[in-house]
Amino acid sequence: MKTENNNSMKPFFTMILTSGVPRLALTVGLAASLVTTLVGLSIPLLTREMVDGFSVNSINLALAGILALVFIVQAVCDGFSTYFLSYAGQKVVASLRERMWFKLLRLPVRYFDEKTSGETVSRVVNDTGIIESLISDHFPQFVSGIITIVGSVIILLIMDWKMTLLMLISVPITTFIMIPLGMKMQRISKTLQDETASFTGHVQQTLSEIRLMKASNAEHTEKTKGLSGISKLFQYGLKEARIFALVSPFMHLVIMIVIVAIIGYGGIRVSEGTMSAGSLIAFLLYLFQIIFPITSFTMFFTQLQKAKGATERIIEILHTEEEEGQEGLEMDISNLPIRVENVSFSYGDDEPVLREVSFDVDPGQMIAFVGPSGGGKTTMFGLLERFYEPDSGVINIGETPVNK
């Protein structure tokens, strides 16, 4: 199972599809994004016609009007796409948070003994926020970017296949550099999320018990722990920054080399009369339409790796076994005795906290639990309230076992 989570996106897609995806909003958003992309592909061709037919004495007003209309249609469709895809992402995350919240309310107390409240809060808020960002922002950009790149390359091959091949030489070079950097980014991002959740849990626990911390003169200890957590986040943040420091300048370098090469080669073609000035401008516009999606792909795959890590932790919560007895008997327990018989309990594989404890409490009777710290007084009340189940023995309210 762990291998599948690390190497496959199946758990992520399964979780999203079971979280009530608003299909209508998603369809409208993707359709509007598709229209925006296709309309955008016509802009360089219209620009070419306008530049090639341009003169001071004869401005093609009809062509200028069509170009203005195309810009308006693109802006309107882009607005619809942004809203509906954001709605779909927010709806999925709201459903996911709802499932996690209901699940947390039904988990046994033992789960919260093992997990800090801050870590759990980070899973519900931060990890789901990563998934929301992927669905609402990065995924639409990725889809529209793929369409833009494919459409632009096809049009460029039809316009001038020699210049297009010159431009495409940069693709394998970029891929060769980007793949190992992306894999390293995946490992760093996952570790950074874990450290963030751990640090959040420690901060929340310390602040919630601030009086106990001060009463125990533990400021120095907590200061050391906090500095350690901050240092880890700083180190992993620097590792992530180093990856971006390599990716961003490298992409910029490749882009500038391609642009300069295209302008130089295209300028020679224009001076020879084998290419019009409008065609060169259109070629450059298509080149920019290809460049922008490629640069956003880096962020998409980084966010995708973060979402994979977040999915593992969310699924861990959703698959945690709930406590039994949610549909217990409804009965009046007033004036009923409590019978504890040979109850033993331990929190783990360590030494048991309670060993074969037995006692009876009749209605109206006042008793006291006395013993040293760690002797099991709080644990006994936890068993009476069914926060935990005894390892052996029974607890009865009247004649009814407490687990009923």
Task: Please tell me about this protein's structure.
It contains twelve helices and four strands; from the N terminus they run H-H-H-H-H-H-H-H-H-H-H-E-E-H-E-E. By secondary structure, it is mainly alpha-helical. It folds into two domains: 2-318, ABC transporter transmembrane region fold (Up-down Bundle), CATH 1.20.1560; 338-401, 3-Layer(aba) Sandwich (Rossmann fold). Strands 2-1-3-4 form a four-stranded antiparallel sheet, covered by helices on one side. Strand 3 (392-397) and strand 4 (400-401) form a beta hairpin. Helix 6 (117-159) packs antiparallel against helix 8. The longest helix has 54 residues, at 219-272.
Secondary structure layout plus pairing:
Elements: H1 2-7, H2 10-17, H3 23-52, H4 61-105, H5 109-114, H6 117-159, H7 161-168, H8 170-208, H9 210-215, H10 219-272, H11 277-318, E1 338-345, E2 354-361, H12 377-384, E3 392-397, E4 400-401
Antiparallel strand pairs: 1-2, 1-3, 3-4
- Which secondary-structure class do the elements indicate? mainly alpha
Overall, the morphology is: elongated
The fraction of residues in strands falls at 5-15%
> Nearest-angstrom radius of gyration?
32 Å
| Full CATH superfamily name of the largest domain | ABC transporter type 1, transmembrane domain
**Number of E strands:** 4
Strand order of the main beta sheet, please? 2-1-3-4
Residues in helix, %:
over 70%
Number of H/I helices: 12
Unreliably modeled segments? 1-5
| Gross CATH architecture of the largest domain | Up-down Bundle
Total number of domains: 2
* Biggest beta sheet attributes: 4 strands, antiparallel
